[in-house]
Amino acid sequence: MSDMHDLKQDLLTGKIGRRDFIGRALMLGVSLSGIEAILQSCGGGGGSSSGSSQGLTVVYWTNVNPKQDLLAVLNGFGQKHGIKVNYFQLPPVFGDDVQKMTTYLSSGYSGIDVLWLDDFMTATFSNAGWLEPLDTAIPAGDFSSIAPAQLTLSTYNGHRYRLPANFGSVIFFYRKDLFDKEGISVPTNWDELVQAGLKLTKNGVYGIGLAGKNGNTELFNEMCYWMGQVGSDPLHMDSPGGRQALQFVYDLIHKYKIAPPDTVTADYTSLQTGFENGKLAMWICWDGIFSAVGKFPTVAQNYKLGVAHPPKGSLNNGTIIANWGWAINHYSNNKDMAAKFIDYAASVPSEVTLANTGNTPSRTDALSDPSVQKALPQAKYLADYVQSVPLHRRPITAQAQRVSDAFEQYVNKYLNNQLSLDTAISQGKQAVDQALHGS
C-alpha cells in the first residue's frame, strides 16, 4: 500500500494534520481501528484538532459535473472566511453512502463537519443522535425560503436537523404526440387516466408505467403517491384509502390492462428504457428521471413530451417529494463554521451555481430563476408544483428501510396474484408495524 505509506510519511513530516490524515485514510479503505493504531504509533490519538486551522470538511456527491461549479461554492466560502474547505466525496452507489456515513458517525468520528444527507439518512441519523439541531444555528430565512412540506422531511423530535438544498418531486409526464394523435385530453382524475390509458394501449404501447418490483423502495414510493391522493400512506395500508389505492393499482394491471403485465418486476431502470423505446404513453415518476428521458436521442428527436398536474384521486391531486440537504455532524469540532457554510451554500447565488451541476434547488425563489430553468428542464415544472400541487411527505422513520421492505413484500405478492387483497393488507400491516417498532 504505497499510497498509505506516503500518507503516513506526510503525517510524520507535518505536511498534513490528523484530520486530513483520517479523511484520506478512510477513502483508501483503512478501518477506523486501523487508523487509530497508526495514529498511536505516530504519537497521537485519533481525535481531530479543533478550530478552523484544519479547515472545514464538506461531504457531497461524487462525479459532479462540471466540478468547477461545485468548487466555486466550496472555495468561495473558504476565501470569504480564510479557511480551506475540503471536499469529501460520497461513494457513487447510494447503499455505500449509507454504510460509510453510518460507520463514521456511529464511531463518533469528528473528521467530517458538513454532511449531505437524503431523507432516509436524516431520519435514521437524527434519531441516533448523530446530527446537530439547526433550529438556531442558521438564519430563520434559510428555512422560510423553502416550501413547508420539504421541511417536514428534515424535522424529527421537534428539531430541524437538515436544511434541504436538493428538491425532487414525482411528476406526471406523458407522450403529447400520442395524445394529440388520438385526440385525447390530459387526464385530470383517476377515471380519466383509465380512459386515456385504454385508448393509448395498443400496438405494443401501454398506457402507463408502474414500478412494481419488490425490494428497492420504488414500489413503496409508487404506493406513497397513489395512497396520498386518497388520504393514506403505507403505514396505514389497512385504511379505506389504503385499500382503495391498492385495488386501483391492481386494476390498472389486471382489469384495465393499461400497465404492462411485467409490472411486478418493473423498476425505474426498466421503465425508463421502456419509455425511451416508445413502449409507454404516461409515466408518473421523479423529475430527474423525466429530465434524463427528455435528453435521450430517440425521445428528443421523435417524441413530444408534456407535463401536467397529477390526475386527482378521491381527495386530492398531490404528489410525493424527496430532498437531499445539508446537516452538521454532532461530533464536529467546527460546528459554528459548519453552520456558516450551510447558510452560504443555501443562498440563491450558490444554489443557482450548483444547478449547473444538475442539482435542483430547494429554494422556491431559486427554482424560478431563469438560469436554473435553463440548466434544468424540470425546474419550471417544479416551481409550478410547489405553488399549485399538494406536496406529500413519504412516511420516513428511523426504521424506513425495514418498513419499506415489509410493505413491498406483501404488496408485490398481491399485484402478482399470489395473495388476495384482504390477506395482503392483513399480513402486510402486521409486518409493517413490526418493522416500525423494531421487532
Relative helix content: 40-55%
Query: Which percent range describes the beta-strand content?
Result: 5-15%
CATH top level label of the largest domain:
Alpha Beta
Assembly form of the protein? single chain
- What is the residue-mean pLDDT, rounded to a whole number? 91
Which architecture of the largest domain would the CATH scheme give at its second level? 3-Layer(aba) Sandwich
Strand element count: 11
What is the CATH superfamily of the largest domain? Periplasmic binding protein-like II
Radius of gyration: 24 Å
Tell me the structural class: alpha/beta
Defining traits:
single chain, 439 residues, alpha/beta, D-Maltodextrin-Binding Protein, domain 2, 3 domains, 7-stranded mixed sheet, two-stranded parallel ribbon, 22 helices, 50% helix, globular
